[in-house]
What does this fold into?
Amino acid sequence: MRTMVDQAACTGCGLCEETCPGVFEMDGETAKVKVAQVPVEDEALCREAMEGCPVEAISIEK
It folds into this structure.
């Protein structure tokens, strides 16, 4: 599973990093993905971060 953050849509709220710090981190004013492939143990948290993103800036592909 892979995930992406739409840099243009991200408002930098930090919810994704707070929810799934193994995959997301803040890079200045926006979030970024730290890993190329989401570890199996972080998949549920990654989905939770995507669903919780207030601007729908996170996408997941299998």
Observations:
- The two ends are 4 Å apart (CA to CA).
- Residues 13 and 30 are 8 Å apart (CA to CA).
